[in-house]
Structure formats: C-alpha cells, structure tokens
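Tutorial handout. Part one gives the primary structure; part two gives the three-dimensional structure as tokens.
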Amino acid sequence: MRIVLVGPPGAGKGTQAAFLAKNLSIPHISTGDLFRANISQGTDLGKQAKAYMDAGDLVPDEVTIGMAKDRMEQPDAVSGFLLDGFPRNVSQAEALDVMLQAEGMKLDAVLDLEVEEDEVVKRIAGRRICRNDSSHVFHVTYAPPKAEGVCDTCGGELYQRGDDSEATVRNRLEVYHTQTEPIIDYYKAQGLLVTIPALGEVADVTKRAMDALKK
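Part two.
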C-alpha cells in the first residue's frame, strides 16, 4: 500500500506511522529522517538543504521532493510506503502525484489524524524532558513523574523545551492550518481521504486506522 499520513503537530503521527508501517510491512518514510540521512551522508541534496537550514531559511520544495523521490525509489519501497511529513503543502502533493503517475502508481489512502486544537496544545505544552537524558520524557497530565520536576529514572531536573511552550505550539498550529491543511481538501477531492479520530490509547488509534484501510 502507498499511504500518506497527515495531521496537526501533536496528533501522534510519528508513533502511528511506526505502528502502521510495521503492521503493513512497508517502510515508514519521514521528512525528518530524510533530511538527517541526506545531511549526514553528504549527498548533493543534503548539502543544499544544510545550506538553507544554516542560513535560517526554509528548504525549497524541490529539494524536499528530490529527497522523497530518491527514497521512494529504494528497493524496500517498491511494494509500498507510508509517508509522514511529506507532502507538506499542495505543491508537494501535486509533485508526488506526478512522480507516482510517471511510474504507473497511485496512492491508496491518505489518513488524517484528527485532534482538537486544545488537545494538541495540552499534549505538547504538558511535556517535560529530563536535562540529563532527553529520552526520559514525562507529561504533567498523562505521564507525571512521582515527584514534580524530578525524573523518575535518574533524578535529573525536568524542564519544558522552548518549542513546547503554548505560544510556540499555537504558532506551529497556525503554520499547519495555513500551509499543510489545504492538502486535506486536495486529497478529499480525489476520494483518498480517511479521517481517523486520534484521541485515546495508541493501540486503539492504530486499530481504527487499520480497520479503515481494510475497508
């Protein structure tokens, strides 16, 4: 299957993508991983992306599209893939359609993880990270530490990252509404959109998505 996963920041795309890709035996292709891999390997596209990023500029669509094209042409993606973070706007969605059509392929579904905006803010702004080890993550509501502000694992100080503040989260949501949300209507017009309520346990959301794909 060839699937695109969309949804606002904090919807759980990364978590769901990993589970769905495993259940469907297809590679999980995320924009973040593509950038990191191309930059660390020193590819031409990676060098271009790094130059823009170092200058504080947005990486142009053509660079992101080039990375995605290279990855989708790898042997493990021949029978399908799950895209997470790409396409990010309508121009990228149109480019993806052209790429697939050139290979005689098409998308099977676009899964939209639906979460209320206030819930997104609550999820992200409530995160607390250990200063000693960033893999130790807590949440003031959903996974609180035993002692406030103290990591259960190592006793390190817990803090809120700057990009997890409510003001920053709401700004990220505004960017999502402006740049990415239009692809939902784009794919709805193609009859590909499947809306998945993303509240509840991770396993429950995964089951909803798998059940929807079977239909």
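Part three, for discussion. The longest strand covers residues 109-114. The radius of gyration is 18 Å.
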